[in-house]
Write a structure and sequence with these properties.
Rossmann fold; 4-stranded parallel sheet; single chain; alpha/beta
């Protein structure tokens, strides 16, 4: 198995430059991104995007397919399904295409490619959206959102052991605050709201690559125990040590929290593909949406009241809809497609 990024990693210079603007744009102007997303999510605009970039990106994919000669190509980007299918048809032999949708509820129309052998969806809402875009029922499977298998529910006694490892109190309600890899999303205000005064909980603040934020938080003297970290590669362990996660309503954050069995307080979302994620969190009762940092203490006190009754309800709802081993299920379906294409090739000899 091999992986590639035909847009940024191996794509033409112009395509790489345009694709690389995504990360800085969503950090500096989410409203602008929302406008771009909705403008690009119409049938005419999507056709125009394919016309402008399709040929050059298709050439990159075709070269990769000929180089690695796979039996199955797995697409995890909405702009690559159509051109990947075209590349496969020009590659000289029959091979499969599987699309794995990595947005949760609302997504770009490019995801719904009816000629994929299989379209894997993470939620019932995503399944219905694919049906509306005329993806055949027998080519859609609801398997969940793929996340790293390290994100799993804690084993008996593991949460306490992890808290000891990180120097945390075993018996305190533990809140994990994260701003993603870049440490964005008003983390300073959120940690202040949770930790400035003396509270009954403890806080883990993961600042990612935002060294300025990490240093600033470390200089503050909080009344509530607060562990401040920079970029880490053990977020799964931190989640298993926690009772509640606080962060952006991105599909990755939601998927990881679900897989670990930790309710999520969403504090922001990206306009466009993440707008309905907030509705998903609240309607399924797996967390809360609190866009203002000042709301956090009151809301968490409510969760902890009456022997944590409301928090326990969130945990139960999370366990009910979680698919912590979706990655394995998706891999199994991919291997089944590989076997089918190999059998077909052997029969045609």
């Amino acid at each position: 198995m091999s992986s590639a990024d035909p847009l940024i990693g191996e794509g033409p210079g112009l395509v790489r430059r345009l694709a690389s603007l995504y990360s800085p744009l969503i950090q500096r102007s989410r409203a602008t991104w929302g406008a771009i997303y909705h403008a690009a999510n119409t049938r005419p605009s999507f056709a125009a995007i394919r016309a402008v970039f399709g040929r050059t990106v298709r050439r990159v994919i075709l070269d990769l397919v000929r180089q690695h000669d796979p039996d199955l190509v797995v697409s995890v980007h909405p702009l690559l399904n159509h051109v990947t299918f075209q590349a496969i048809r020009r590659s000289g032999r029959s091979r499969g295409l599987m699309t794995v949708i990595t947005d949760l509820v609302e997504f770009h129309r490019g995801w719904c490619f009816p000629r994929s052998d299989l379209v894997v969806v993470p939620t019932e809402a995503a399944l219905n959206a694919c049906r509306k875009q005329r993806v055949p029922n027998d080519r859609i499977k609801l398997l969940g959102l793929p996340v790293d298998l390290r994100f799993r529910p804690p084993a008996p006694g593991e949460r306490d052991a992890l808290r000891r490892r990180f120097g945390l109190a075993e018996d305190r309600f533990t809140i994990l605050v994260s701003g993603g890899g870049e440490g964005s999303g008003r983390m300073l205000q959120q940690v202040r709201a949770l930790s400035w005064e003396r509270r009954d909980w403890q806080v883990i603040a993961v600042c990612g690559r935002n060294e300025k934020l990490r240093r600033r938080l470390n200089r503050l003297r909080f009344a509530t125990p607060t562990l401040v970290l920079g970029f880490v590669d053990y977020m799964a362990d931190l989640l298993r040590a926690s009772d509640l996660a606080v962060g952006k309503a991105g599909p990755g954050a939601i998927g990881e929290a679900l897989a670990t069995g930790v309710p999520l307080v969403a504090t922001s979302y990206l306009p466009g593909q993440e707008t309905e994620n907030v509705t998903f969190i609240t309607e399924f009762g797996i967390g809360r949406y609190l866009p203002h940092a000042g709301q956090l203490p009151t809301a968490i006190n409510e969760l902890l009241a009456d022997e944590r009754r409301l928090w326990r309800e969130l945990v139960a709802n999370t366990a009910r809809i979680a698919r912590p081993y979706a990655s394995l299920d998706i891999a199994r379906e991919g291997l089944a497609l590989v076997a089918a294409y190999r059998a077909s090739a052997q029969a045609s000899r």
